[in-house]
Amino acid sequence: MGAMLDLSLAPRPGVRVPLAELTEALARHGLRLRGGFATDSTVDADILAVAPWAQTVVLIGNVGSELWDKSGAEIAALGDPDPLDRWTRRVIEPIASSVGGLVLFPFVGPPYWPFQRWAERAEGVRSSPIGIQIHPEFGLWHAYRAAILVREAIALPRREQGHPCDACADRPCLTRCPVNAFSPAGYDVDRCVDHVAAVQNESGSCMDVGCLARLACPIGTAWRYRPEHARFHMHAFLNARMRSKRNPSLTNSTDDVGRTKA
Ligand code: B12
Ligand code: SF4
Ligand code: SF4
Question: Are 171 and 214 in contact, with CB atoms under 8 Å apart?
Answer without folding.
Answer: no
